[in-house]
Design a protein that fits this description.
single chain; about 325 residues; FAD/NAD(P)-binding domain; binds flavin-adenine dinucleotide; FAD/NAD-binding_dom; FAD/NAD-bd_sf
């Protein structure tokens, strides 16, 4: 991804949450009226919306995040061969981006499942596999790389052995195996009974946790039976913000209950970008690959639309000239 685009995606919360108080810390505990944070601060609440999504080990500071992107870009540029561990949407998108930008690089995907893109249907998996192989990407299915035991422990490792005993040499590697749901901090709390075996929070049709009057959850942490997608997380947020407005307004309890907005799980259309021009789209009625779906997903990956929605200027305000092309 080009550095100017990256700059536009890393947005400090304070830039768009202009009327909110932002506490930069992890929530480490919660009871029925207070959230405890990792900096020792207790934040009291009347209403709580849990949106901790997935665990994240990215650097906290904007400059450090931009530096991380730049560092990965340099690693890829310098590599003749790249190993990608994990063939979900992220692994496939990364492989496609690399081979479309530099067709001479040797890219290998090692994927633990029987087919790529298991969040999509079999047709999509087959099309992705065919597309990648046509670009000379090596795809090893039903194999894993144990990154904790030997190869892959250090970013400088270059020789990797798969669970089937195959050896892959690569100048650099990326782990794209997905991140666990960030609900560990809730397990021992009064909400612990609502965390399911996969770590997701059980929500009702109003996106409330355990039918509690004042606790909601949105986004990837919920057990809503649908693909975990950013645009669906935004829809959850819309429903919950309307419900909060209703509840804050007050009035007779039972009539408010009846007015609460409902969230209905959607059959999400999933699009995986394949470099700058192509994409693979799974729609409710068909699965398509190539320039056509590539033209539907904007070249800037919805960054402009998202910035507009947040009330931000289309370009990043910060002067980060070192990252400009
Ligand atoms: C590489 C990638 C590409 C994607 N592409 C698309 C796409 O093209 N289209 C699409 O619709 N979706 C896409 N998705 C999915 C989309 O990003 C997620 O569905 C969306 O981000 C979910 O939002 P969320 O707010 O629920 O969780 P997250 O985005 O995971 O955000 C949760 C935040 O909470 C923080 N957090 C976690 N635990 C705590 C804690 N205890 N205390 C305080 N903070 C905490 C995390 O650090 C994180 O910042 C993509 C995902 C990835 C990883």
């Amino acid at each position: 991804m080009d550095p100017a685009a990256v700059e536009r995606t890393v947005i400090p919360h304070s830039e768009y949450l202009t009327h909110a108080k932002v506490v930069t810390a992890s929530a480490v505990g919660v009871d029925d009226s207070v959230v405890l944070t990792s900096v020792g601060r207790a934040v009291a609440y009347d209403f709580l919306v849990i949106a901790t999504g997935r665990m994240c080990n990215r650097p906290e500071k904007r400059e450090d995040r931009l530096r991380m992107f730049e560092h990965d870009k340099v690693r890829i540029a310098a590599a003749e061969s790249v190993l990608i561990v994990g063939g979900g949407p992220i692994g496939v998108e990364l492989a496609a981006e690399i081979v479309m930008g530099s067709p001479d690089k040797r890219v290998t995907i090692v994927h633990g499942g029987p087919r790529l893109l298991m969040v999509m249907g079999e047709k999509a998996s087959a099309k992705a596999l065919e597309w990648l192989r046509s670009k000379n990407v090596t795809v090893l299915l039903d194999q894993t790389v144990d990154l904790d035991a030997g190869s892959g422990v250090s970013p400088d490792d270059k020789v990797f052995t798969t669970s089937a005993g195959e050896t892959v040499t690569a100048d650099c590697h990326f782990v794209c195996t997905g991140r666990p749901v960030a609900s560990g901090w809730l397990r021992e709390s009064f909400l612990g009974d609502h965390v399911d075996g996969d770590g997701r929070l059980a929500v009702d049709e109003h996106l409330r946790v355990g039918r509690l009057r004042n606790v909601f959850a949105i986004g990837d942490i919920t057990d809503v039976p649908e693909a975990k997608q950013g645009y669906l997380a935004q829809r959850h947020a819309m429903v919950v913000s309307r419900n909060l407005r209703l509840l804050v307004k007050g009035g007779d309890g039972s009539s408010r209950e009846h007015k609460l907005h409902l969230y209905k799980a959607s059959k999400a259309a999933i699009t995986v970008t394949l470099g700058r021009r192509d994409a693979l789209s799974e729609l409710p009625f068909m699965t398509v690959i190539g320039h056509l779906p590539g033209a539907v997903k904007p070249r800037d990956l919805f960054i402009s639309r998202t910035r507009r929605m947040m009330g931000l200027k289309l370009s990043a305000r910060h002067d980060q000239s070192m990252f400009r092309i």
